[in-house]
Design the sequence.
């Protein structure tokens, strides 16, 4: 059966309220914007999202966040999204902040079928000891805090046990894909996309260029099609910049 679907709307048609999504991208680089927009056009709420951050106020996952579609997010930082910070601090959104490298490895482990791993990142802090605010109460107190995690010593160094992450669906963006779902990413736009793709039980990929199966050099493929279940040709993506900095003439 062909993995190619006619539109982004068709690709996300069976994502329901309460689903968990692993979403690729870093800021606004390499985000699956067409898939996110198609999901925002549906009446889907109570989502849990795993992503490095939550886009900006007007782009990417920020669209779903602004419309109160996201219940919980696992991310490494707030980024350039003031609504993310507002919802978190006001108790409207549950947030599990995770060290960036740990987040990447939790997704990679989930995709590889590894249930957990030990890492030195976060040992001796609230990451391992517990107490990180996951959700605030309206009065500013901590309503839900992170639990303590197992810490073990290997060769004289302490490590914390981190559990892997998987999701119901993965939403990713690639520069090129073929009809079998093999993907090629563009430089830094690769970022979290392959990790999110493998962690999702069903992976949806939007591609700027769609080519016939067999046209891609196997040695150049970044993500094998076995991990991709649906692919949609969305055309050239508008490259957005979170914070434009221009050098001043002297």
Sequence:
């Amino acid at each position: 059966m062909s993995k190619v679907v006619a539109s982004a709307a068709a690709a996300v048609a069976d994502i329901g309220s309460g689903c968990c999504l692993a979403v690729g991208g870093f800021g606004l680089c390499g985000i699956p914007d067409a898939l996110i927009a198609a999901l925002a056009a549906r009446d889907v709420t109570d989502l849990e999202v795993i992503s490095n951050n939550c886009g900006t106020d007007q782009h990417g996952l920020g669209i779903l966040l602004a419309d109160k579609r996201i219940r919980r997010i696992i991310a490494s930082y707030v980024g350039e999204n003031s609504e993310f910070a507002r919802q978190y601090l006001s108790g409207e959104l549950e947030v599990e902040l995770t060290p960036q490298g740990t987040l990447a490895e939790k997704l990679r482990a989930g995709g590889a079928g590894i249930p957990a791993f030990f890492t030195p990142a976060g040992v001796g802090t609230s990451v391992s000891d517990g107490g990180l605010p996951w959700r605030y109460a309206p009065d500013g107190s901590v309503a839900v805090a992170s639990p303590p995690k197992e810490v073990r010593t290997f060769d004289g160094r302490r490590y914390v046990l981190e559990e892997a992450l998987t999701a119901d669906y993965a939403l990713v963006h690639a520069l090129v894909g073929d009809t079998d779902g093999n993907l090629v990413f563009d430089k830094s736009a690769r970022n979290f996309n392959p990790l999110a793709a493998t962690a999702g039980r069903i992976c949806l990929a939007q591609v700027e260029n769609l080519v016939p199966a067999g046209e891609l050099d196997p040695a150049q493929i970044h993500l094998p099609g076995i991990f991709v279940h649906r692919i949609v040709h969305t055309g050239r993506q508008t490259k957005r910049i979170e914070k434009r900095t221009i050098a001043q003439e002297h």
Summary: The two ends are 61 Å apart (CA to CA).
